[in-house]
């Protein structure tokens, strides 16, 4: 059985290193994962007043995209030692209306990347803080803090460092096992 995986990228820019990382992870995914990118850049900021008659169509599109998948892969840069606002907004949009969270019980993995040496550690764990509350079982090991990400890819977007490629492959294999263990659909 192949499980569907929604891939959420925290960076919105076209040349994003984290988007490249996400594409590399998808390419390394085991056969039991079918990955699909879900966009977060068009979601209006979460405002409870818009629930009811004024729900933005992009919120509905996003909620339905997540609701129908078995699992979620988060790949994000760190902004000011936290996650980018757009990704937090996507978490918020998916978490409401109260009692209808699309995240509940959905297994996930978190990978963070940065040109710096800390590899987005702060963003990785702040994201995990929200995932605890949202009842998302997030794979604990292996952890993926990818530093030096600006030097990781060749001109074609392939991973230029064999050791990192091996590690990312192990990460996705572990995620495949994690999803098989925890997925409810
Ligand atoms: C950054 N960057 C950054 N990097 C980091 O390691 N820790 C941080 O706290 C921050 N803070 C930060 C804030 C803002 C607003 C921006 C725009 C950037 C640098 C960041 O890692 C770098 O720009 C990456 O290239 C962004 O990821 P993408 O867009 O390449 O995926």
From TrEMBL:
One of its GO terms (molecular function) is oxidoreductase activity. InterPro entries: Flavoprotein-like_sf, FMN_Rdtase-like_dom, NAD(P)H-dep_reductase. PANTHER family: CHROMATE REDUCTASE, NAD(P)H-DEPENDENT FMN REDUCTASE LOT6. It comes from the Bacteria. It holds the Pfam family FMN_red. GO terms for cellular component: cytosol. Residues 5-148 form the NADPH-dependent FMN reductase-like domain. This is ACP phosphodiesterase. Coiled coil: none annotated.
